[in-house]
Amino acid sequence: MRSTTVYIGLGSNLGDRVARLREAVERLSRIIDVTRVSHLYVHAPPGYVSDDAFINAVLEGHTTLKPLELLAELQKIERAMGRRRGIQYGPRPIDLDILLYSTVQMESLELTIPHPRLAERAFVLKPLAEIAPNLMHPVLYYTITQLLSDVDDADQVRLFNPGGNR
Questions:
Q1: Contact 37/78 with Cβ under 8 angstroms?
Q2: What pTM was computed for the model?
Q3: Domain 4-159: what homologous superfamily?
């Protein structure tokens, strides 16, 4: 079966966020071939009900899973790591999102690819631009770097410094 390049966004704002992200990458490496992982970035999005900022990263991988199969695997990992669906903008130990699945465009009740808010979220665009700056958005036909230059809050997303930012 042919392998497809995927980009997955990872985020955590509950508990030991760095450890949770490391664990998520390790768990993801059991189901896909992880080829690159961005640095960690910190961001305190407005409207979230939490004292701790999110720490985010993006990974690139290759998979033979179909999009909905991959989504099911991501949700299994989230559940295994303590994620409970509930408050939409509440704290979460781990959040895993399929951002891009090659150039696939799909919309279903369960999943939309590319991620519908990818182009407006600096906290995923910045780490994605780090590992794939010239990647073309398959719907908007702009590179990730170009999309990042158009978002207003890019300066609010900073490299995570374990000793210096929450």
A1: no
A2: 0.92
A3: 7,8-Dihydro-6-hydroxymethylpterin-pyrophosphokinase HPPK (3.30.70.560)
Q: SS in 3 state form for 60-79?
A: EEEECCCHHHHHHHHHHHHH
Domain boundaries, the chain: 4-159
Residue corresponding to tokens 């989230």: 78
Q: Which residues, 6 or more positions from 53, have their beta carbon under 8 angstroms from its beta carbon?
A: 13, 42, 43, 44, 165, 166
Say if residues 7 and 100 touch (Cβ distance below 8 Å): yes
Average pLDDT over residues 31-37: 98
* Cα–Cα distances in angstroms (integers) from residue 143 to residues 19, 22, 99, 119, in the given order: 31, 28, 14, 10
Mean pLDDT of 39-59: 82
Determine the Cα–Cα distance for residues 81 and 92; give it in Å rounded to an integer.
Answer: 10
- Calculate Rg over the CA atoms of the chain: 15
The torsion angle over the Cα atoms of residues 65, 110, 122 and 51, rounded to 10 degrees, is: -110
Give the pLDDT score at 42. 95
CA nearest neighbour of 54 among 69, 46, 65, 43 = 43
Active-site amino acid positions: 83, 92, 95, 97
| Token pair listed for 109 | 């009740």
